Amino acid sequence: MDRTPNNRAWFLVLPMLALVLFSAVIPLMTVVNYSVQDTFGDNEFFWAGLAWFEETIASERMREALWRNVLFSAIILAIQIPLGIFVALNMPKRGFWASFCLVLMALPLLIPFNVVGTIWQIFGRVDIGLLGHALDVLGVDYNYVSDPLDAWITIVAMDVWHWTSLVALLCYAGLQSIPQAYYQAARIDQAGRWAVFRHIELPKLKGVLLIAVLLRFMDSFMIYTEPFVVTGGGPGNATTFLSIDLVKMATGQFDLGPAAAFSLMYFLVILLVSWVFYTVMTNLDREEEPR
Amino acid sequence: MTDAAAPARALPAARAAARAERFPWGRVAVMTLYLLFLLVPIYWLVTMSLKTNREITSTFTLFPRDLTFDNYRTILTDPSWYMGYVNSILYVTMNVAISLAVALPAAYAFSRYRFMGDKHLFFWLLSNRMAPPAVFALPFFQLYSSVGLFDTHIAVALAHTLFNVPLAVWILEGFMRGVPKEIDETAYVDGYGFPRFFVTIFMPLIASGIGVAAFFTFMFSWVELLLSRTLTSVNAKPIAATMTRTVSASGMDWGVLAAAGVLTIIPGALVIWFVRNYIAKGFALGRV
User: Which member of A8, A86, A118 has the closest CB to residue B243?
Assistant: First the structure.
């Protein structure tokens, strides 16, 4: 749609701007403030320059948490995107069963994050959980509390359970927009199932898939509550992701300086990805415009 | 000759396709497996909430042997439990009201006008939605403590606007773009002022959009734990935080924990039917 140039529109944006300034900019400035200062307590601060940033970049602990988080996001994307597409392709197209599947699939998405953690904490326990107990009966040595690999498997399974439906729902919405004529043309050409997917469905899904990849990357990159409830970052530091480490540092040990420097760099990465996300979305909007 | 053979070969294939369309076994199998995978953990939570603690820890049963509602009774009669729900609902409702009130005019501005810095502003909003709550936990704690709002519902409601206002603006903007601009222009020609036009004509037109935005702001405020836990101690403690406390303190009260979990799933499960066709749109920030 053609938008009229009118700078008075700023007045409509003002209330929102005031609110977001209060709830986002002031806290962020506090973080910036801490990141360049040091303290010996008693609210006495002195200038520390970029020392905290240098320390954070050099710190082994940060780097480990970062790699762990990158690995986690990579695994999550590698499982959830193909699985989500596969599920979307198998969903009923319309009618009661389509709604039925939509509603059940959306259910995990609407469960509070810590309850997701609680569900899997209970589900995986060897003594009282269905999964843990079943594996135990089958003779699999499984214990997510003491074994790092089992903890990882549990958390990945939990995230797949929690978020795959989001990818599937987005792809389903994308598939719905493909006109029937395309499929009829494919049938006339005697295209196989794979050819239909590769040359008709996948190109049409490009847009939603980009959104799905970016959303899943961002959210898995800042995951906190679910693994915190299930493993608390353990065993050892095996599942301590960036957010868990950051909260531990800031509110547990009150290392304000390093925590703030860490926050800012974390935020910078997120900002970069957001920018990619934004560019992708606005480009998609532009492609849709001349219809 | 090969040309003549082609339709003959195509015929059985078409018949097979028609048969597959009549009852798609493969699809049904895939969907059944996937839905089972989603529902079994939830089923386990529900059965557990209907068992006694003795049954949970001593024996292993797929169905509750002595069906009991005691766990739910504990929660619904103990103020330290049910006030958690009241607190959560209070701040979530406030958050929805605040988010929508500021997002509606802003989304209208973004969908109708081009103004200085609009693109940068829109991007900056998005970056707030994507900001890790962990980064904001400590500064929020200090900010709200210093203005005397710590442990109040309004503090959590304001904190959650961090990600909910951008979400609401993006969703509403998506819906508003679908309304033709001629409607605005006709109304202005007819002598409507902006406030009257917006409330009496425009808002009914995007009612479904407002409903979807309200649902998603409600949901994201309801599922968030990190900020709401950091900003409260007693008076405004959300149900989610009450649950984490119980895990660490009395450790073994699995039945009550499960019942509390089930009760937090219910609000979402109840309204999900109404927004089923907009779920993808909401999660994708109004796009798709």
Answer: A118
* Cβ–Cβ contact A95 with B under 8 A: no
**Number of domains making up chain A:** 1
Q: Are B150 and B231 in contact (CB under 8 A)?
A: yes
Tens of pLDDT, residue by residue over A131-142, are 888 888 888 888
B79-283: which CATH topology?
MetI-like fold (1.10.3720)
Instruction: Answer for the pair A218, A77: CB distance below 8 angstroms, yes or no.
Output: no
Residues 6+ away with beta carbon under 8 Å from A34: A256, A257, A259, A260
Q: Report d(CA B276, CA A101) in Å as an integer.
A: 10
Q: How many CA atoms lie within 13 A of B183 on its CB side?
A: 15
**For position B3, what pLDDT does the model report?**
47
Q: What is the pTM of this model?
A: 0.85
**Cα three-residue angle A117-A223-A115, rounded to 5 degrees:** 20
Nearest to A114 among B115, B244, B288 (CB): B244
For residues B157 and B88, is the Cβ–Cβ distance under 8 A? no
Cis peptide before B133 (omega within 30 of 0): no
Q: Is residue A37 part of a domain?
A: no
Phi and psi at residue B65, to the nearest 5°: -80, -50
pLDDT tens-place string over residues B64-99: 888 888 889 988 888 888 888 899 999 999 999 999
For chain B, what are the domain ranges?
A: 2-49, 79-283
Q: Do A173 and B159 make contact, defined as CB atoms within 8 angstroms?
A: no
Tell me if chain B has a CB within 8 Å of the CB of A36.
no
Q: How far apart are the first and last CA of chain B?
A: 48
Task: Give residue for tokens 């222009």.
Answer: B185
Q: How far is CA B205 from CA A260, B193, B197, in A?
A: 45, 17, 11
Q: Is the ipTM of this complex over 0.90?
A: no
A residues 98..157 contacting B (CB < 8 A): 99, 101-115, 118-120, 122-123, 127-131, 133
Give the nearest chain A residue to B261 (CA atoms): A115
- Which residues, numbered 169 to 228 in chain A, qualify as contacts with chain B under a Cβ-Cβ cut-off of 8 Å? 169-170, 172-174, 187, 190, 207-208, 211-212, 215, 218, 221-222, 224-225
| CA distance, residue A279 to nearest chain B CA (Å) | 9
Q: What is the DSSP letter of B152?
A: S
Whether residue A76 lies inside any domain: the answer is yes
A52 falls within a domain: no
Contact A19 B98 (CB under 8 A): yes
pLDDT score of B18 more than 60 = no
Question: What's the gap in Å between the CA of A190 and the closest CA on chain B?
Answer: 8
H-state helical runs in chain A: 10-20, 26-35, 51-58, 60-90, 96-106, 113-124, 130-137, 148-176, 180-188, 193-196, 202-221, 225-230, 242-247, 256-288
Domain hosting A76: range is 60-288
CATH of the domain at A106: 1.10.3720.10
The CA distance from A168 to A202, in Å, is 13
Which of A5, A13, A250 lies at the smallest CB-CB distance from B121?
A13
